[in-house]
Amino acid sequence: MIGFLRGKLVLKAPPLLVLDVHGVGYEIEAPMTTFYELPALGVEITLHTHLVIREDAHSLFGFATEADRAMFRTLIKVNGVGPKLALTILSGQSAEQLHRCIHDNDTVALMRLPGVGKKTAERLIIELRDRLPQLEDSITTTATITPSVGNAKQEAVSALCSLGYKPLDANKMVQGIHSEGKSCEDIIRMALQGAIR
User: Fold this and answer.
1) 125/188 same-domain check
2) Which of 24, 160, 176, 195 could serve as a FRET partner for 128 with CA atoms 20 to 30 Å apart?
3) Same domain (yes/no): 59, 77
């Protein structure tokens, strides 16, 4: 499984983008919510990825945030929702907006998405409602695509999450830290010292 890719953005042609990772060009399909976050061509970025292997194709999907990838993985488990429809759904709504629709039983908002009829909207709500508690932690993350250079803050947030902090709390811990010239380890140390006080 390919968990993430870090490389230079060389092509943006929604829903396809190409990332140059050490001379290998990865074709990645991404939702429009990810495209809105992309920087200019030639900038190095990190994408959270999900690989789908089928008899006729290997497809790589990329996301700006861990929350979007978690929602994508949850969507493709719903009966009748494949990777393409899941990508379309996430192109029309962020993971947080979709979470809200499911929580509020808002079939009308879901039916506005391309490819989602009344039955699919109802199925999404019924099948995802039980999974909402597991999704809440990943939805609260506010991380977006940023250039990898100077990405120490984002790496520190991920590390703090690995240590057991909730994404929202981890973001708050590093938010006030002046990160210029500091390594990820320095930021983590300062964040933890601030949490102890």
Assistant:
1) no
2) 160
3) yes
